[in-house]
Design brief:
By secondary structure, the protein is α/β, with parallel strands linked by helices. It contains 12 helices and 12 strands.
């Protein structure tokens, strides 16, 4: 881990001069300041704003960055993480990436500069190669433990706690296949993103287990995974004459959009088309036809993620571990009697 004194030594200046330059002071000559900044950038050093004011050397703060808190799923996950962090006697700093990688980086850089003792990242639902993300490596270089909650980025040596998305989808698709459905449309997110890739594996495994072939056209990658997109997409598929006897969505909000579109066209759910979602959020229960879904135990995910993080903080080690939480199939009216 590169420290301020290392930057100063490499730049051939005092620790005080290096600190002034890194904090934007104009009292340092331009040439010297530029040399110090270049060295800091090369070694991914970020000035820690409050380090000198912490008498005990601990901030008692954990940073959490999440895509949003508007969706019920992410909102619940953040609340659960906050509860687990507070139980440890720590406070939580929350940063929202707003579904953008550049904002995720900005939040993590802010956390590092604010002397958080650890970071929980709730990953974006997009294909990201973790090996190409310098701000993830930066945390380790600064001695700050990090853990993923709910998913992970490919090619990273970072611990993770999440529900088994592949197994959850396998159980859901098996339930529909056992009910006689064969033309099962699956609204996935971007197929190369980790959550979507795992769910697609579960879908394919369920078909393979019953010696059935998957129709690739039934795997529909969605740029957006919300109510309005699912509503409009279902209308387009029906207008195109697609043969459908079931639709699965990656979340319950999308499933509700599907149910409402089908009902608006007098298509019976589940009599004509069965519908299923994922996450067991309120959408699945308030739907005019209660929706079959898969429950993700976010209390367990949060406990697992925070437990791993504090183990790393206390032991000062970044040993990688993956905790997988079992999913629970919740069968409701939208897939019964198909």
């Amino acid at each position: 881990m590169v420290k301020l004194q290392d930057i100063a030594r490499m730049a051939g200046v005092s620790k005080a001069t290096a600190s002034l330059a890194l904090n934007g002071s104009t009292s340092v000559k331009d040439e010297t300041r530029q040399r110090i900044l270049e060295i800091a950038e090369e070694y991914h050093y970020i000035p820690r704003k409050h380090a000198q004011t912490l008498a005990c050397g601990h901030s008692k703060v954990i940073g959490v960055v999440a895509p949003n808190v508007e969706s019920e799923y992410y909102g619940r996950l953040v609340q659960c993480l906050d509860k687990q962090i507070q139980r440890r006697g720590y406070a939580m700093y929350l940063g929202l990436s707003n579904e953008r990688q550049e904002m995720e980086e900005k939040m993590i850089r802010h956390f590092i500069a604010s002397d958080v003792e650890g970071v929980v990242v709730v990953p974006l639902n997009m294909p990201i190669d973790g090996d190409k993300i310098p701000y993830l490596r930066m945390m380790e270089e600064q001695g700050i433990p990090c853990v993923f909650a709910s998913s992970y980025y490919q090619n990273t040596d970072i611990s993770c706690c999440m529900v088994d998305l592949e197994e959850g989808t396998f159980r859901l698709v098996t339930h529909l296949l056992n009910a006689g459905c064969r033309n099962i449309i699956f609204y996935t997110g971007l197929s190369q993103a980790v959550p979507s890739a795992l769910r697609i594996k579960g879908y394919e495994r369920a078909f393979a287990a019953q010696r059935l072939c998957v129709n690739p056209a039934n795997l529909v990658a969605c740029e957006q995974i919300d109510y309005d997109f699912a509503y409009a997409l279902t209308a387009r598929l029906l207008d195109a004459g697609r043969k459908i006897d079931a639709v699965i969505a990656v979340n319950d909000a999308m499933a509700l959009g599907i149910v409402n579109l089908l009902r608006s066209r007098n298509i019976a759910v589940p009599g004509d088309i069965a519908v299923a979602g994922y996450d067991n959020t309120g959408y699945s229960r308030v739907s005019p036809v209660p929706i079959t879904t898969v429950n993700q135990d976010l209390e367990e995910v949060s406990w697992g993620a925070v437990d791993v993080l504090f183990s790393q903080i206390e032991k000062k080690t970044f040993l990688v571990s993956k905790k997988i939480v079992a999913p629970e199939l919740v069968v409701r009216e939208s897939t019964l009697h198909v």
